[in-house]
Design goal:
Six copies of one chain form a homohexamer. In chain A, about 35% of the residues lie in helices and about 15% in strands. Chain A is an alpha/beta fold.
């Protein structure tokens, strides 16, 4: 897949102040004429080709304003780690409902929803799963992402809003540990994947695992080929360094057995 | 399957004042020594072998009190029709979280969770589905039931609390229309199914479709045979009467095409 | 399933002069007010509740007349044994096209199409197959029935005409040999199956294997439960007699190895 | 399925002195003219319609003599519990090889091989499995039975010897504990199953789970319908009594979690 | 895969005067010593290494002459667009029967049959399908290609004639619209695919989707790896240009929803 | 995948004197500090970084000594061709039991077990299979390898010893015939595969087909992606030469029809 095209006039990026949001902020400008950035709190000035609309996801009116006038949405906003249920309920459950209601009212027809590998974190690291394996969330965060996937399915079946649920693995500058050799998604591949979801002619409602072209992997994207994602990076170049600075996994530790890693032991809060 | 046994000392039935709650109230007494009944608002006096603990599912403290001291839970409580998101959020999302947290704290190890066929209501009436087909909820209510299924999966994988998610079809005294010839679940079969879920030696986390032994059906329970549910009733005896008083479905109407029936056209609220 | 209801005003039965046609002629009167009978050549007088419209299936105009005014069609007409290609082409390929074109023009919305187990006759007798196994026809006749299944799929996807493709096993007064212990379909069960296809609320495009409730079987109808067919007869009562008068199959004979039996050795003509 | 027929002239039953052997000894006489009984050591006199040929399964010459002249074999012989590897190697591995070599040399074309549910004992009691799930043996005994299944598959593919691998559950006069409510196979159903395997027109190489018509079950025989086994008994009549004298399973005990029950904790020897 | 080898002495290419026929005419010379070209009407002179045998596919005698003496057949002949049934019946149904009968009589053992993506045109563009998904033809043309697939299956199971059914996507110099970004098959990849089918040691009866290595695709060839097709081209280099000159698909248009594109709306004729 | 790392202190290679053993002897030194070599009979001197411990696999005491002190095992030892049952019983059945018992006693936690494509040799060359297809061994050797796979599954489920069962295709300097174009595994890819199995963070119990990146293949490794094997070689460069010196397969020869090639006709011994 070549350089993405300016397929959208005005594109909304939520969670723009976070780690992935920052990584996508520059990269997504090539996909649109105007990139609308949003987050809960102020995070600086809009630059050329940008505009900023702050919004609390739990506030339906603010979300409505945030969504008005955009062509498509890349929704990274909300909580992205295991946490107590109340903030997850507000940001990831009520928040995603508010987002889809706003999309429905304003006629936005395509959403890239940042789901998570923690929707299926209780599968084993020696299993290969695909998009139709039933959810096995590894925490309240994972459950909330499964909720978003189900809600977006409803908005597709009922209202025709296309969504790609991207089950992001571990998107960091480089893999931090042996587990991330399997789950790593480079920032550039993240952008390639989001671009593919935004521009493929027909998206439907699709679940895609977000990982780079790593040799070791647990996820099978063969049911999402219509998205057209072709990763270009690989964790393999970091492999030797990661092995050198980490020790072998202890198979008596659930964090080594299950795909969710340490998330399967987090909380309760 | 014979008459159920008193497999539990104290059994909690939530939503006891509703239609299904009333149907189960008498029938479940044979399964336990004490049947604790709960609903949001006062619904009369406890009878012999009963006790009543009122609770608002959205109130964690009240739910905690409701759950304390029981051996197992039959959770019918919450909203059971398509509705606006706010009450669904309170009763079916926060409510079910409160219930599982209380179960975890009090060591309750088995739950029968009233899920719904509306979790998969956007499959077609000419499709046969089983428990592992991905959710296709037909409304916010269906999405909230999918949430309960996912949350209970997490509480099983993490904390070992067994749950049967019973995707109830149409549980009424008799089938009201042609669609219910497929989805009908007699009250006695409902009780048989709940009894099986309560008493099977090992339940794990299971999804079971709740229908009687109807000739026409859309659901395949062959992956839940360990539950031991054997329906004894059938909608077939009502078939001729239903046909006589209803007209043929119009296949241009989504309510005739999809399994969810009229739910696929409900709302938005 | 109880006695069928008069679900149709005018029902067309093609191939009415053949073996199965005769078996259905009396039985189908309970399903309709008027039973229109058709075959290629004259076969006697219409009786009470009947009307006769002769037609050569390869003649579009005659087929059009035959179809005009009916509510639904049970299509047994055409060639039902292995034969040379030319008559098969006329009766089973051009003929079924003419039938569906007439149905489309006249707004007939439901067809029961007599397909055949010979669509999948090259599966082995030790294999269990269901409706989605790819065709493995055992002759030109089987290929022509596969054509009818595919054509009717197109008329459903494009024009909404519902069809049940009934892959009839061996429908005779009783099973003649050991193979028919698996494939036998009693006349009464044939009628039950056709009635179910005619009256189930939503049929879609369905493939159903037509066999009685035989202990030995090769076919799995679990993907056609929405049809509501519940067989009541069984070849088992004939088992001992069949064994007594037949010898054990020779597994070096393809007719014993494959489901199609002697058809797999028929022809070429 | 009705009373079995005398489908064989001379039928060999190995392991005739054991528990299941004794149960089948009387019952199998209706299937043949002469029932040849075999075991390792002397176990009494032949009765009318019987003959006795003792053989050590590990002794090829004795096995050859045992097999010579029979039409079909029901092979219960060998070790049927977890044990040290050496005796298993002799009786269940070398022994079954000797048996098939003798069958090949003497032209015996059908074998009913007593396999075991312990071939798949490491699946969970909340899983439903069918014949094509990969083996997960729960001990050396289970591994040896998987060996017999694989060996017989080879003798079918290469030499055309048909085998039914019957994965026997728990065949006792009645279920002893809660696990056996799922795994129980009555002696009469055992006989029905063996009779079906012996007499079905085409057996091929088939894997069949041997259980009665129990409400709770973990096994799906839908891929072996060509065998024609229809169980008539059920553990359900014993259910209440079993519950009364046993306590609820402890899900921290592997014997309660896995299908193999206590076998998963047996040995090493 | 390297340059193809001259694996055949005399190779027949039907439909040689058409678009794909012309593309293959030069390229296939490297696969054989003599390339026999055929079409219905005269289309010029044979060149070095070529011979021409004209034939009307509906004429059995002409087809017989056309086939006599060749080692293998690449069958592009017949109608390749949606059309009225009569010409499709002659060219694609009677024609393909004539071809296989001639192959059977003359001992030709391998055929590459140009099937079409329109055999499965009523799957959605957001679905990934493989060779065993049931046919969902999008027109009479697609139905006729399904007929050819089924007929060739019969000739393989009965007579051992190997066939590759190549479901060609869109084989043009370059993709014309957004749909063709998924379906495009370059002429060189078409040749690679036909060469692989002609030369792989064992072909059996195989269904292969004919597309280049496009990023966006709907088809999964993983069940045809024994064919050894490795595409080298990709529609991706045309992507930006295609987007620039076309507008976004309207999901209310069946041509945008279904894989068959505009074919799903063609006719009736 | 880059150059392997010294992931192990002391690594045991059995069957070190054989063809594959010799190929791995040099290559595996980069994976460990000390490479312990073993075979049944003396095969020369240990070189730098090596040590030699001879052992007869059928001798438990010798195997125990062989295994003591190693971190991981690459088990190529035993018989690797079709042979009489007695030596297979000793080396491949008793031998692999002895190996796993020694591993259990000495706490060795990872084994790479040289299984074989002959475990599934009776699948057809036109079928694509994956790890979960049931075994169809093509001889006693194949049955013994299936035994090793099942035994290692038990040692994983019961004792947590991870094993990769590598179903080696044809590992030679180059492919010898047309069948090997599909089955060929270069020595370097063999080493890459073994290295991946030794070093992947979590191996579990995995079945992997051992072939290079050949265009024609019959095996699908998509369920073993967690192993991280990425082949770099291909039989394709040898294709033309192989075709030039061999003739086309005769499909009447079982060796051409089945994946096992000539093995399906070997023996009996």
């Amino acid at each position: 897949m070549k350089t993405p095209m300016k397929t959208h006039h005005r594109l909304l990026l939520t969670g723009a102040a976070g780690g992935l949001g920052s990584a996508l902020r520059d990269r997504l400008k090539v996909n649109c004429e105007t990139l609308r950035l949003s987050d809960k709190s102020s995070f600086g000035e809009a630059q050329a080709g940008e505009e900023i609309v702050l919004a609390d996801l739990a506030n339906a009116a603010e979300v409505d304003t945030m969504v008005a006038g955009v062509d498509a949405i890349v929704h990274l906003g909300g909580i992205s780690v295991e946490a107590a249920f109340e903030p997850i309920l507000q940001a990831n459950i009520l928040g995603v409902y508010n987002l889809y209601e706003a999309a429905r009212k304003h006629g936005v027809k395509r959403v890239v929803f940042a789901s998570s590998n923690h929707v299926t974190g209780f599968y084993k690291q020696s299993e290969t799963i695909h998009a139709d394996h039933p959810p096995r969330p590894d925490g309240l965060y994972g459950v909330s992402k499964a909720f978003g996937e189900d809600l977006s399915r409803f908005y597709f079946d009922r209202y025709g809003i296309e969504t790609a649920c991207v089950r992001i693995g571990s998107s960091f500058p480089e893999p931090k540990d042996r587990r991330m050799l399997a789950t790593w998604l480079s920032f550039d591949d993240l952008h390639r994947l989001v671009s593919a979801c935004l521009s493929t002619p027909v998206l439907g409602h699709s679940i895609v695992f977000g990982m780079s072209n790593n040799a070791v992997t647990w996820w099978d994207n063969s049911r999402a080929r219509h998205v057209g994602y072709v990763p270009q990076d690989s964790s393999d170049v970091f492999r030797e360094a990661v092995y050198a600075r980490t020790s072998a996994p202890d198979l008596n530790d659930p964090a080594a057995v299950y795909q969710g890693g340490a998330f399967v032991k987090a909380g309760p809060f």
